[in-house]
Amino acid sequence: MHILIVLVLLLAAAGFSARWAWWRKKTPGLAVLCYHKIGTPPSGSKLKDLWVSPEKFRRQVKYLLDNGYKTLLFSEFLHAWKSGTGLPEKAVLITFDDGYENNYTAAWHILKELGAKGNIFVVFNTIGKANIWHNPSSEPWINMATAEMLLEMKESGIIELGSHTMSHPHLGALEPENAAWEMRESKRQLEALLSAEVCAFAYPYGDGAYLPAVRAGALAAGYSLDFSFTQGKTSLPWDRQKGPLDRLFIKGTDNNLDLVLHLSRGASRL
Fold first, then answer.
1. Which fold has domain 26-265?
2. Tens digits of per-residue pLDDT, 184-204?
């Protein structure tokens, strides 16, 4: 019986080690959390990892605030980086990709309730429409935030907006001039809508973030900050010439232990 108990404990420990990266060395650097949709996946969704429930999102944001993390807007990080004034010891950026209506109906209200800030990367051509870049057989189309919603969130001072191209393409698959247009035109159109500078850009799917020809287009478009979809934390101070800011993809199945490991190890799982 004693041997059986030991074996069970060993198997449990092995399973824990395989599921979570708690044994990895702590990784310094900037933590940028990447969310997509806050809500319940619709019937037929095969991309459930893109959905985080409102309850989980609230617990995760509350964990950040309860443990001394300071949530920043793009412009706040940009000012600290450019001025060299330094960041708070536990600085974190909460980001959302694409600009879904549920970022307004769910995420924004949770951030307001708890006193945190967030940032949304917007696909300009789908504002007030649907996520039409998805194949509806694998991810049903849902509503995107309207221009009015985006402006209301921006005016609240709780949300800042960045660009996620005009149409959410794989930039690396486009001719360089077409990829450059997607990045340049989305910045121009968003700035006209918001009557404010758009300083941040995220590469859809992370495609092109580390391709020199594509990244050159993002820099030429005038973005001060560019964000990949590569899993990890970015060493500080950020050396922009070496690459974009990496992020920590928060999945729908992630719990607060996953969040802790993302923040401390740069990944939660193998």
1. TIM Barrel (3.20.20)
2. 999 999 999 999 999 999 999
- Residue 30, helix vs strand vs coil: strand
Q: Which of 77, 74, 41, 71 is nearest to 56 (CA)?
A: 41
CB 255 within 8 A of CB 38: no
Looking at residue 206, its amino acid is G
Q: Are strands 118-122 and 70-71 parallel, antiparallel or unpaired?
A: unpaired
Collapse the DSSP code of 260 into the 3-class scheme (helix H, G, I; strand E, B; otherwise coil) and give the result.
helix
Question: Number of H helices and number of E strands within the chain?
Answer: 9, 10
Per-position DSSP letters for 95-163, written without gaps between them: EEEE-BHHIIIIIHHHHHHHT--EEEEE-GGGTTSB-TTS-TTTS---BBPPHHHHHHHHHHTSEEEEE
Contacts of residue 5, defined as CB under 8 A and 6 or more positions apart, other chains included, come to none
Instruction: Cis check for the bond before 42: say yes or no (omega within 30 of 0).
Output: no
32: nearest Cα among 199, 266, 237? 266
Find the largest Cα–Cα distance for the chain. Answer: 72
> In sequence order, which residues have a C-beta less than 8 Å from that of residue 116 and are 6 or more positions away?
61, 64, 65, 71, 94, 158
Q: Where are the domains of the chain?
A: 26-265
Residue 24: the pLDDT is: 65
pLDDT of 89-127, one tens digit each? 899 999 999 999 999 999 999 999 999 999 999 999 999
Q: Which of 77, 173, 83, 174 is nearest to 117 (CA)?
A: 77
Whole-model pTM: value is 0.91
Q: In a 3-state reduction of DSSP, which class is residue 34? A: strand
